Amino acid sequence: MSVQIKICGLSTPETTAACADAGATHIGFNFYPPSPRFVSTHQAEKLSQNTPAKLLKVGVFVNPDDEFLEESVAAGQLDAIQLHGKEDPLQLEAIRSRFGLPVWKVLSVETVEDVARANDFANADFLLFDTKTPNGAALPGGMGLGFDWSLLEGYDGAVPWGLAGGLNPDNVADAIRSTGATLVDTASGVESAPGIKDMDKIAAFCKAALNP
Ligand SMILES: O=C(O)c1ccccc1NCC(=O)[C@H](O)[C@H](O)COP(=O)(O)O
């Protein structure tokens, strides 16, 4: 089966169309206000109306409150909720029950113990292993930083998982071959500047991921 591809941090209809044309399966709408990829609920509503039907829309959140989630899920017509903060398994369960959507938990990785935290999130629908950003970093994700993929060797948790962190058109094929990831995710790796998606890079990323 082909790898699944999530392009994260979309903010224009042209780039969502480019994702669909290139073979991506998922796009991410970023609902974290400090991010250069942030979209308001108004923007998300417009974008979702123009998103090709074959793309699944994942909302990216960092420690969201219920009201904000409610507004964003509705505006973005989301297909899944990605939690990228310090949410715990109980919060994850509560969010899934409330919205009836698959919930993705991001595990920020620097050490093998970080990978083992997957055991705490057996109730997630999907796990995304991403790089732990340094203390004091502006953002908990989307910084183009990779981690040591060998930390995933031997990981055999039951929850489906994907790989993020510093992936770009030049390294994504190697990442898939090295880790066996069945979903790859990129934000800054397909941009010309923070928050500005580059359609050629989106096409190159998808081509490389689909032919690892
Ligand atoms: O992209 C952001 O700005 C962001 C901010 C805060 C939390 C999460 C964020 N991105 C979530 C993603 O899923 C990114 O695609 C992932 O972190 C990989 O980013 P990158 O290393 O830039 O490819």
Automatic annotation (TrEMBL):
Q: From the Swiss-Prot or TrEMBL record, give the protein name.
A: N-(5'-phosphoribosyl)anthranilate isomerase
The protein's matches in Gene3D superfamilies, at most eight in alphabetical order, are given as:
Aldolase class I (3.20.20.70)
UniProt lists the gene as trpF
Q: Which organism is it from?
A: Erythrobacter longus
Q: Give TM regions.
A: none
State the family named in the UniProt similarity comment for this chain.
Belongs to the TrpF family.
The catalytic activity, as recorded, is:
N-(5-phospho-beta-D-ribosyl)anthranilate = 1-(2-carboxyphenylamino)-1-deoxy-D-ribulose 5-phosphate
- Molecular-function GO terms, alphabetical: phosphoribosylanthranilate isomerase activity
In terms of Pfam families, this protein maps to: PRAI (PF00697)
